[in-house]
Amino acid sequence: MHGEPRDGRIVIVGASLTGLRAAEKLREEGFTGSLTLVGEEPQPPYDRPPLSKQVLLGKVPAGHTGLPQRRELDAQWKLGVRATGLDPIEKRVLLADGAEVPFDRLLIATGTRARRWPHPAEGALDGVFTLRTSDEARRLAERLDAGPRRVLVIGAGFTGSEIASACRERGLAVTVAERGPAPLVGALGGTLGALAAKLQRAHGVDLRCGVTVTALEGDGRLTGAQFSDGTRIDADIAVVALGAVRNTEWLVESGLAAGPRGVTCDAGCRAFDMYGIVTDDIFAAGDVARFPHPLFEYQLLSLEHWGNAVAQAEVAAHNMVNPGPRRRPHLTVPAFWSSQFGLNIKSVGVPTFSDQVVIAQGSLKDARLVAVYGYRGRVTAAVSVNQARSLEYYQRLIETAAPFPPAPGAADQIESPDPVPSDVPDPKLLSHGPTVALTGHLPDRRLTVVQPAR
């Protein structure tokens, strides 16, 4: 680096959505130095949301989900090679092929991978899948094309539920196993979780909640599964949808505050070291980052959302090439969407950051509604089901910490004006990992126990 933020060498580790959008933003901001993107997968950046929807339905080939490149990058791409280490003193990224990539500034955007089945021998059975990459989606879609007798989906979070929906749309028999009390309950709480359970069963899903899969059976090829309640099923395919693992292992000796929950950074995307000192040349963005957000009491948020990946990538890139006074915080209100069982679900805010929920518009009976979530008397999230047009209004309520429940003027066709507990369970009670994780703690929650003197 030559003392000029728009010159020098920038390396981005992670060549997916976050890495691509950050690279584009760097050039847009006038960065003229060398730019290198490192990615473990061999293919150029692609879009992941279609993998569990259009690809599994056979409507779009897995190889046709590439992300458009919005501008010329003049970058060096190192694809198909994994980063194995980081030397922050010498400012080098170590690669699995033995190469070293020097940098002046580094963006960590390594994202997540699917959590594997915990028993390796069972996970290696032919017919056991995960779904995170384009290649995984292609192989699973091919097996669904073959018409299996029954598909077992382990975990009823958003990914698991979308997989089950695609299988039912194909006319396949599906069993969904979820340790929690309902599908989606870890992300949306009890009220909408109950609606999701009702709809899955109405669409013919053999939904089993409150149980775990204790064993996958087979001799080389999957034949069935056993459950914790003593029952078993025959199944040709099992899709493990237990959430995601953040790709931070390569940073274990880097001295950064990186671990299973992600890479901790400040609101400007600058990574912390293991002592809590913010670095000035290493940044993090996307699914792998955990960052504080003032709307949610500065708890550290880890988000697996498409929109967050784009917004945080652009903030990180801006801050990498601008001096301190011109840097800006990442304050985007989290948002995501899902399509499953004929429902279009959209969310703003953090539904799990809540103690109450009210159906502010529409009704559960019609499966067309807006649920508004509150915490300590202020609006923190809103989720629409087949009624997204007013979600922007509720986003403004979240951004202004408006009182909860929302004023009657914001509602029509109210089914019940009275808030009820949001019933967001402890993530430990679920089969699947949450796509939104609050990884800080609330100031009023005691995390230590004082033992009386003996």
Please describe what this structure looks like.
- This protein has seven helices and 30 strands.
- The chain has 454 residues and is α/β, with parallel strands linked by helices.
- The strands form seven sheets. Strands 3-2-1-7-21-20 form a six-stranded mixed beta sheet, covered by helices on one side. A six-stranded antiparallel beta sheet has the order 24-25-28-27-26-29. A five-stranded parallel beta sheet has the order 9-16-10-11-12, covered by helices on one side.
- It is globular and about 60 Å long.
Counted by DSSP, the helix tally is 7
Mean pLDDT: 91
Shape: globular
Q: How many strands? A: 30
Secondary-structure-derived class: alpha/beta
First-residue to last-residue Cα separation = 59 Å
Q: Helix coverage percent of residues?
A: 10-25%
Task: Output the radius of gyration.
Answer: 23 Å
Low-confidence stretches: 441-454
Strand order across the largest sheet: 3-2-1-7-21-20
Strand count, sense and barrel status of the largest sheet are: 6 strands, mixed
- Fraction in beta strands: 25-35%
